[in-house]
Amino acid sequence: MDERAFVRTVAERTGLSRQEAADLTRATLETLAHRLSSGEARDLMTELPEGLAEAVRRGTTDRIERFGHHDSVLRVAERTMLKEEEAERGVRTVLTVLREAISEKEFNDLMSQLGTDFSQAVDSAG
Hints:
Layout: H1 3-14, H2 18-33, H3 38-46, H4 50-59, H5 69-80, H6 84-101, H7 104-114, H8 116-125
């Protein structure tokens, strides 16, 4: 899935404009990258189109941060100026579209680093 299709899918599923969906997608990927090891971030970047991989690259740090799904929603809401409910729906949607866009193995590796509350968020998104 290329970047335009990814963002278009996020926009359609969230009801946000394409620009809002693009900002939401980048903010979500950057935020999630704070939770990933450098190796996992690198693996994820290899399966994403360049623009989305760049968002992961920007979010990658030397030290893995520990925060849950709700805190990630708050961070994304702050960065995008979306309401918390919109960011909640958006983060779930980005994770769901990510599951469709990358290999099952890579998605499972990603979710194993993010943790149970992120997996539950994806499962509840459908």
